[in-house]
């Protein structure tokens, strides 16, 4: 039986699968009082992390404060400089998506002013997970990628993902060397399988692409994650992704910016931007960093000054050279008072509690490794479990369960999620467990919703039950898929 036929059969058996999960629910043991309150993620726009007690207190007190917002912003800049040095600066913005937009519009697009026709520019981005975000701002090249986003783009019509395309900007979409791009999912689509990525070969490939397009290339862009499932598992020094470091070196050699989309990251816990060679690192502070909805851009002064001016942080007309909270071309991206106050509080908390955060991630890893023992034993060398301090997460990647012609645990495409056909999400819902991000064979567990108390302390009992539920869902999926492949 061919792979797509297996997925077709699986799609027709969704009701039976959910019935099996319901029958096995007692073996997981989610108390009724916990149902719907424990979750394996706090790291996406629909399910951001809960706010800790201290963050809520700071926002509440700030809501009645007479302090100018500029003073809070100045404090954010100081905290970042304390961590990364005086060569780096910071700018809060309303979301990480806004940060991507503003960064590419400021540094990747050609100028609008001047006589004659505008020239076109190209930024280079890796073909990796969640590509619709960081790749979606230019017209795709080569043309075979012009429909790479499929339903994720088209369901929004002209104003959806495709509507973000910027003026006279192209994007060269570059597959990662060593990665596999296979068709999976009930709603079949190409899925990047990135555990076998080769940093050295990818760096060499990117250099050739830049050299071929040297007169038009304006930026390099990649995700900021540092785990095997995202293709960044190779780390010579144990901390810094070799692939990102290679991209940073290329950006320096060709004098173009390297923009790192680290949406699901925590400032101060990952590799230093200088180690990555990153000129701009972009964060979604509400996902795992503990802040209210807001984004943060951290970068070198050469790039931060133009961004600050573009959003309206310039006041020479008032004299004195001090910063103001003005209105620039990106006025819609200004964060509000509560966002800025909460973001500052979150940054200060992370700065003071790095050991606590890392220790919590270590505890989560221990629980996951313990509960996943039966699946790891069944799928030998097929499951990779890793931790990420940068991402505040533990990652379970199972794409290699399909290696060597084997029938593995189903890999659901992002299109499956849009069509409500991701069985992992559906199965966990039956158990009353809020799902993690389980797309493309990569399950990322973060703890922002129900697995931490209001002070950020770890709930091991809740976590163990939630992870046990995930194991049961994946195990049931694997068994059903194997059975269907033989029928």
The major sheet is characterized as: 8 strands, mixed
Count of individual beta strands: 15
Structure annotation, total helices: 17
Radius of gyration: 23 Å
- The average pLDDT score comes to 92
| Fraction in beta strands | 15-25%
Trace the largest sheet across and list its strands.
2-11-10-9-8-3-5-4
Uncertain runs are: 316-320
Label the structural class.
Answer: alpha/beta
The amount of helix comes to 25-40%
Terminal-residue CA separation: 9 Å
Shape, per Cα inertia axes? globular
How does this model look, in words?
By secondary structure, the chain is of the alpha/beta class. The chain is built from 17 helices and 15 strands. It has helices at 3-12, 14-28, 53-62, 69-84, 96-107, 131-134, 151-154, 199-212, 242-254, 273-276, 301-311, 337-352, 354-371, 373-378, 414-418, 423-431, 460-486; strands spanning 38-39, 88-93, 121-127, 139-141, 169-175, 180-184, 189-193, 217-223, 258-261, 280-284, 295-300, 384-388, 393-397, 433-434, 442-446. An 8-stranded mixed β-sheet has the order 2-11-10-9-8-3-5-4, with helices on both faces. Strands 12-13-15 form a 3-stranded antiparallel β-sheet, covered by helices on one side. α3 (53-62) packs across α12 (337-352), α8 packs parallel to α9 (242-254) and α13 (354-371) runs parallel beside α17 (460-486). Mean pLDDT is 92; it is low at 316-320.
């Amino acid at each position: 039986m061919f792979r797509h036929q297996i997925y077709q059969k699986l799609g027709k058996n969704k009701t039976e699968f959910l019935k099996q999960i319901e029958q096995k629910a007692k073996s997981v043991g989610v108390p009724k009082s916990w149902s719907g309150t424990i979750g394996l993620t706090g790291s996406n726009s629909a399910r951001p992390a809960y706010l800790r007690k201290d963050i809520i207190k700071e926002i509440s007190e700030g809501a009645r404060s007479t302090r100018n917002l500029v003073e809070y912003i100045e404090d954010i800049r100081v905290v970042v400089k304390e961590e990364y040095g005086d060569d780096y600066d910071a700018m809060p913005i309303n979301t990480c998506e806004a940060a991507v937009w503003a960064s590419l519009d400021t540094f990747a697009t050609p100028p609008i002013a001047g006589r004659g026709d505008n020239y076109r520019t190209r930024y280079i981005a890796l073909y990796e997970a969640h590509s619709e975000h960081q790749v979606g701002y230019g017209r795709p090249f080569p043309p075979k990628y012009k429909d790479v986003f499929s339903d994720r783009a088209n369901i929004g019509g002209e104003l959806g993902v495709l509507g973000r395309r910027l003026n006279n900007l192209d994007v060269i979409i570059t597959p990662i060397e060593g990665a596999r791009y296979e068709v999976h999912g009930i709603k079949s689509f190409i899925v990047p399988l990135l555990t076998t990525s080769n940093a050295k070969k990818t760096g060499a490939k990117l250099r050739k692409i830049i050299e071929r397009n040297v007169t038009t290339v304006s930026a390099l862009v990649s995700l900021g994650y540092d785990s095997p499932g995202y293709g960044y598992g190779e780390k010579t020094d144990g901390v810094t992704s070799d692939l990102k470091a290679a991209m940073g070196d290329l950006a320096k050699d060709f004098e173009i910016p390297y923009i790192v989309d680290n949406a699901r990251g925590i400032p101060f816990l990952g590799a230093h931007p200088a180690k990555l060679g990153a000129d701009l690192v972009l964060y979604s502070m509400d996902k795992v960093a503990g802040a209210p909805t807001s984004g943060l851009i951290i970068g070198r002064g050469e790039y931060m000054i133009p961004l600050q001016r573009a959003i309206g942080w310039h006041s020479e007309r008032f004299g004195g050279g001090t910063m103001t909270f003005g209105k620039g071309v990106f006025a819609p991206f200004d964060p509000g008072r509560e966002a800025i106050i909460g973001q500052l509080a979150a940054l200060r908390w992370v700065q003071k509690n790095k050991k606590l955060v890392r220790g919590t991630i270590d505890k989560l890893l221990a629980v996951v490794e313990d509960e996943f023992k039966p699946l790891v034993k069944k799928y030998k060398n097929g499951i990779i479990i890793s931790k990420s301090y940068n991402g505040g997460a533990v990652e379970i990647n199972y794409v290699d369960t399909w290696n060597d012609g084997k029938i593995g645990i189903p890999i659901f495409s992002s299109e499956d999620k849009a069509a409500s056909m991701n069985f992992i999400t559906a199965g966990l819902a039956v158990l009353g467990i809020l799902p993690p991000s389980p797309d493309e064979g990569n399950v990322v567990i973060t703890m922002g919703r129900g697995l931490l108390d209001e002070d950020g302390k770890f709930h091991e009992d809740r976590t163990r039950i939630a992870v046990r539920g995930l194991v049961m869902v994946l195990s049931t999926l694997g068994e059903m898929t194997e059975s269907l492949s033989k029928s």
